[in-house]
Every structure is written in C-alpha cells, then in structure tokens.
Amino acid sequence: MRQQVLVTGGAGYIGTHTCIELLANDYDIVVVDNFSNSKPAALSRVQKIAGRDFVWYEADLRDRIAIERIFAKHKFCGVLHCAGLKSIDRAERDPLRCYENNLEASISLIETMQRHDVKRMVFSSSATVYGESARVPYREESPLAPNTVYGRSKMMVETLLHDLVHADESWNIAILRYFNPVGAHSSGLIGEDPDGVPGNLMPYICQVAVGKLNHLSIFGHDYPTPDGTGVRDYVHVMDLAQGHFKALRQLSESPGLLTVNLGAGRGYSVLEVVRAFEAASGRKVPYRFAPRRPGDIGSYYADVTRATEVLNWRAQRGLLEMCVDSWRWQSQNPDGYV
Ligand SMILES: NC(=O)c1ccc[n+]([C@@H]2O[C@H](COP(=O)([O-])OP(=O)(O)OC[C@H]3O[C@@H](n4cnc5c(N)ncnc54)[C@H](O)[C@@H]3O)[C@@H](O)[C@H]2O)c1
After folding, report:
1. Which end of the chain is more exposed for a tag (fewer CB within 10 A), N or C?
2. What was the pLDDT predicted at 142?
3. For the CA of 61, the nearest atom of ligand 1
C-alpha cells in the first residue's frame, strides 16, 4: 500500500510542484489549502500532469476542528508543511497578519499531528532567516539575523521545531531553507501565479515580457558584484520539489532534526537573469535602474554541501532552463490559473 503524505499549501507554487514529485515517487497525497494565495484549478492541473487523482480539502490550518477531521480520516506517514504567507512587502505593512498566519497555522498543525502520533514533518523555511550579518555563502550554521518580518516569522517556527524535538525526540523534522525558487513544470501547466504585481524577479520579468508590465526596475547597480546588480541563488522549482522528496525519505531512514539549504550553490546577477530570459523567450525585457532598496543585500547564495552529503541532492537545472520553463508557463497562461 502507498504511504500517504499531507501537503499543506499544496495548491501554491512550491506545493503543486512538490505534489507532482511525490506522486511520481508513488506516494499518495492529501492537500489542504485555504486558497488565500492560490486556486483550486492548480490542483486539477497537478492531477492532469500526474495522471492520478488525490484528495484535497479547502481548509485553513488555523481551523483546528477542520484539521482534526482531516487527520481523523487519513493515516499520514508525514506532513510537508508549505502553507504560509510569503510576501515580504505585505508582511512589513501588516506584521500581525504574517505572524498570526505563519505561527498559528504551524502550532495548530503540530498539535494535531501530535494528537495523531504523526511526527514526521518537512518545513518550508527560507534563506531570509540568515539576514545581513552572515558571510556568503550561507551555511546552515551561519548566524540567524533576519532583517524582515517574514524572515523572523520563519525563524520563530524553526525555533519552535527545535524546541519540540528537544522536548520529544520521537519527532523527525527537516527544515528546508529555500533560496530563490524560479521556473515551472516543463508541461507549462503549472507555475508561479502571483496575486497582483509580483514581488519576485522572475515573475516580474515574465509579466514585462508578456506585455502586462512596462519595464523592470532594477534596484541598485552599484553593488560590489561583477556587473553592479544584486546576485541571488536561483533554484529551479522542480529541483526544489525533488529536495522535499529526498528530505522525507531521509527522515524515514535516519530520524532526528535536519536543517538544509536548498539552493543552486551559486549566484546569478539580475542582469544575467534578464539576458538569459531574453535568450529563452526571444522577447526584449526593457529595464531601468533605480536606487537600492533599504535592507537589500548585494549578493548571497547557498553552501549546499550538507544537501549533497546528507540528502544526495544537488540542483540539476541551470539558468537557461529556469527561464525557458518560466516563459513557457507565462506565455501559455498569461493570466495564470483563470
Ligand atoms: N516562493 C519563494 O520564493 C519562497 C522562498 C522561501 C520560502 N518560501 C516558503 O515556502 C512556502 C511555499 O511558498 P510558495 O511560493 O509556494 O507560496 P504560495 O503562496 O504559492 O503557496 C502557499 C500556499 O499556502 C496557502 N496557505 C497560506 N496560509 C494558509 C493557511 N493558514 N491555511 C491553509 N493554507 C494556507 C496559500 O493559499 C498557498 O496556496 C511558504 O511557506 C513560503 O513562505 C517560499
């Protein structure tokens, strides 16, 4: 019989791609999502790509009664906890909403897991927990000093998970610190579908290329980087999805608490991404330089030694493939999942 995994936030960008990977590796999945930043149509597309049905529930993780009912109906071997609010800007404007959602949802989920003796979890954390003070490349032991509300909400959940394992060693937890996920499934059926003006570089470039936005603003071109623009570690979302599967498998073979960076292990500048995207799409991406944004860092990328050694994981897809796949999704679905 197949093992069953609960994917929270499974209708979102990373959740949908991770569901494909789990289904391809013969897991059964159950998705719970409140669709606050996604649409049910994304799940129909996942079913189409995988050629398999699965159960999904529209529910908010903070609704303890609804979550209890879901756990009572299924026997999960583990949980991939991807649900969360991810907008850095919105979190700065409304910190209470970010903390309330990201912390309360995690606590409610963990309590329910505990009641049902489901003690294996993979948690979606973020490289934003490192903040400015860490030396590049970021290692898992680098000091944590997030300089955003969002980053602090992730660090708080990480702390909670550490304390949980400290108090009860039967918990098995993998904390995955994603760097900058981009790209889309090669079918062009699923991808990142931002609500309003995108906050991340790749979906912004996509919307400029498809004519929904006039130009890209590049914040800062006087950083100490090869071309002066900011350097980030972009990682293909399907590579990331595979990292989740490997983390889940690792937890069943070797329990405990594991914190792992998931990045490509190298940086690309904004201008490199623009050029690669133009080559991939055949479209011009007009851009203008704008002043640096407060809090932005010139350059960061991951040290992926631990992911390689412990998970036997390494990002396989390069920048051109990330751009080709992003463009396929955007050009085939200019308005997302409508
Ligand atoms: N995409 C990135 O750049 C990035 C980088 C680092 C970490 N992360 C983290 O990875 C996770 C997934 O990110 P994503 O890009 O797929 O985001 P997303 O917004 O596309 O997906 C998150 C999903 O969670 C759902 N959700 C939010 N709060 C919920 C709640 N209380 N109950 C039930 N469902 C809820 C949303 O509706 C959405 O479908 C998030 O936790 C995010 O913070 C994302």
Report:
1. N
2. 95
3. 32
Assess if residue 225 is contained within a domain. no
As given in the structure block, the two tokens for residue 323 are: 């751009």
The atom of ligand 1 lying closest to the CA of 38 is: 39
Domains held by the chain: number = 1
Asked, for residue 204, whether it belongs to a domain, the answer is no
Distance between Cα 256 and ligand 1 center (Å): 24
Question: Residue 157 sits in a domain of what CATH number?
Answer: 3.40.50.720
Among 36, 61, 98, the mutation site with the greatest number of ligand 1 atoms within 8 A of its Cβ is 36
Q: Find out whether the beta carbon of 142 lies less than 6 Å from any atom of ligand 1.
A: no
**Predicted local distance difference test score (pLDDT) of residue 254:** 86
Cα(16) to centroid of ligand 1, in Å? 11
Query: Which of 79, 319, 52 shows the shortest CA–CA distance to 180?
Result: 319
Characterize the bridge pairing of strands 268-269 and 231-232: antiparallel
Q: How much is the pLDDT for 199?
A: 87
Look up the domain containing 249 and give its range.
4-183+234-264
Cα(248)–Cα(160) distance, rounded to whole angstroms? 19
By three-state DSSP, how is residue 30 classified?
A: strand
Please state, in angstroms and rounded to a whole number, the distance separating the CA atoms of residues 96 and 36: 16
Q: Band of the pLDDT at 179, cuts 50, 70, 90?
A: very high
Q: How far is CA 183 from CA 128, 161, 241, 320, 332, in A?
A: 20, 29, 12, 10, 14
- 150 catalytic per annotation: yes
Angle between helix axes 201-209 and 319-332 (nearest 10 degrees) is: 50
Is there a domain that residue 210 lies in?
Answer: no
Whether 107 maps to a domain, the answer reads: yes
